[in-house]
Amino acid sequence: MERVNIRELLGPTILTRLPEQAEPSHIDTETLEGKYVGLLFSRAFVPTCFRFAPKLKDVYDKQRESGTSFEVVLIPLDSSQESCDEQYSTMPWSCLPWGSPEIQSLKKQFAVTTPPVLVMISPDGHILSRDARLGVKDTPKDFPWKSVEAAVLSSYSFPPLRYYQNLTPGMKTKLKNAFMFIVPFLVMAFNWYYGAYS
């Protein structure tokens, strides 16, 4: 699985809500290290984003109540500070400041076209899923929703790859590289379809 550095992804600081303060405060991104992190790409006034956020909040609250180190970071795709503030006012988690240069690089890195998109990252920095929305909606108990593509590459029992063990090391490498090359395009197509017809 691909591994990332959370500080390099998000920059030095994020906004978060502290219990004793009414307004969000800037904190060091390093506070996310060692936690499950969900990067929520979302935009205000988009119906699918509006419907998804409460479902994610339910999972977020239950995981934290059970003692799981889990934090969500809103990656705002809003066109203005005002709409970003309105969206974030309904959310209990952290937020990348609106207008941060990291937003565009994150959109490109994770091939985000149609929000919402939820990227799940493990405590050791591995990308578990590039879009865990269906996990949140359909199988919340399966947190942290290891991605289908990761499961395929870690299991030889997947039917289309039943002859995987018989391949040479070079062929295995080529197969993995080809598979991971097409995954971002499949994610983009899924995001477009899901956003258009949900």
Automatic annotation (TrEMBL):
Record keyword Iron-sulfur present: no
EC number assigned by the record: 1.8.1.8
Spans traversing the lipid bilayer: 178-195
InterPro entries recorded: Nucleoredoxin-like, Thioredoxin-like_fold, Thioredoxin-like_sf, Thioredoxin_domain
GO molecular function: protein-disulfide reductase [NAD(P)H] activity
Keywords carried by this UniProt record: Membrane, NAD, Oxidoreductase, Repeat, Transmembrane, Transmembrane helix
Keyword Oxidoreductase: yes
Domain annotation Thioredoxin: ranges: 12-154
Name of the featured protein: protein-disulfide reductase
Reactions that this protein is recorded to catalyse: [protein]-dithiol + NADP(+) = [protein]-disulfide + NADPH + H(+); [protein]-dithiol + NAD(+) = [protein]-disulfide + NADH + H(+)
SUPFAM superfamilies from the UniProt entry: Thioredoxin-like
Family per record: Belongs to the nucleoredoxin family.
